[in-house]
Q: What sequence folds into this?
């Protein structure tokens, strides 16, 4: 073949195939540490395989969930502290799965950026692997997309996809009734919702992200706001397996006000005693600095309650023992009542 002038390459257009291949090799150890029963192959195939029978199921129903991290990513990118958002990505998916009664089995991620930075992407995916380890699910695949012109310098976006399983007939919620108790499982911060409002409040405060956090001595503002989302999988699965929860409710976007009705049958509502728990300092700071009214706080943030277990009165002691054993702080925050919607009493503070 005659010599021809060097033509344009994909790299000339801004996509580095070699960098993508290098990233796959870099993250293989992180994926390997998430292996669990049912995992069949490592990264690199066109599809990811998982053996549900080997995971211990005989008549499984699969449950799927997908989510992202939202504009919490903006703070992570601006501070350079991107590892924790990998945990957030997993948490937002697997905490939803357990509310259906499903055990998370495997996870896939989607990482999109304008120019692939291997160190940055590897740190995020290592965080994803850590989240999978905490949730007991395997990181079995994903996609890295380098798309010049779609994202600003250093920016990226994330999406996560989790699949879980339960034996047929073991789904939640079930048999929720008037008089059932609400056990609030403590959050460890803002988790991954409401960050568009958080960022506006930070701007209003005039504080830099590397300034001391007014509500968290010894931590910077950025570090405190980026506390990763709590993963409740182990505690919630044990509650379910021991028959101690009639329903589980992940408190995400919409807060307590909009999420609790999702697990209640028609004709039932909840009465929440806001004085039952102390509003964590980060939320008090957000409310005070932003002048955010209580109803808006309750429908935007978790306000210190990241998951709610709906428990029959005769199962309360069992549920509390399980949560104590799992090291999950919890408090009784309300009751299922006749009617509909979420009613509140007391003062949150």
A:
């Amino acid at each position: 073949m005659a010599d021809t002038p060097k033509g344009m390459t994909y790299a000339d257009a801004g996509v580095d195939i070699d960098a993508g291949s290098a990233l796959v090799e870099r993250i293989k150890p992180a994926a390997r540490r998430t292996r669990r029963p049912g995992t069949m192959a490592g990264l690199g195939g066109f599809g990811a395989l998982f053996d549900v029978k080997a995971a211990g199921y005989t008549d499984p129903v699969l449950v799927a969930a997908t989510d992202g991290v939202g504009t919490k990513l903006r703070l992570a990118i601006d501070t350079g502290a991107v590892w924790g958002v990998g945990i957030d990505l997993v948490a937002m998916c697997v905490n939803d799965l357990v509310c259906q009664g499903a055990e998370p089995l495997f996870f896939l991620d989607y990482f999109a950026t304008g120019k692939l930075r291997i160190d940055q992407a590897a740190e995020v995916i290592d965080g994803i692997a850590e989240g999978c380890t905490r949730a007991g699910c395997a990181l079995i695949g994903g996609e890295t997309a380098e798309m010049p012109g779609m994202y600003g310098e250093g920016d990226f976006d994330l999406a996560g996809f989790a699949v879980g399983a339960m034996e047929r007939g073991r789904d939640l919620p079930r048999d929720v009734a008037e008089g059932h108790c609400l056990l609030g499982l403590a959050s460890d911060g803002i988790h991954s919702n409401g960050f568009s409002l958080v960022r506006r409040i930070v701007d209003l405060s005039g504080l830099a992200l590397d300034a001391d956090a007014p509500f968290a001595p010894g931590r910077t503002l950025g570090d405190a706001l980026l506390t990763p989302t709590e993963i409740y999988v182990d505690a919630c699965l044990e509650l379910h397996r021991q028959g101690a929860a009639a329903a589980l409710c992940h408190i995400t976007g919409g807060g307590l006000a909009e999420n609790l009705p999702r697990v209640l049958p028609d004709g039932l509502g909840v009465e929440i005693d806001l004085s039952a728990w102390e509003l964590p300092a980060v939320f008090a700071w957000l409310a005070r600095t932003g002048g955010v009214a209580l109803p808006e706080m309750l429908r935007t943030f978790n306000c210190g309650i990241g998951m709610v277990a709906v428990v029959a009165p005769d199962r309360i002691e069992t549920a509390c023992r399980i949560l104590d054993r799992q090291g999950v702080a919890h408090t009784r925050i309300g009751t299922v009542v006749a009617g509909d919607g979420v009613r509140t009493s007391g003062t949150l503070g």
In short: The CA atoms of residues 146 and 237 lie 37 Å apart.
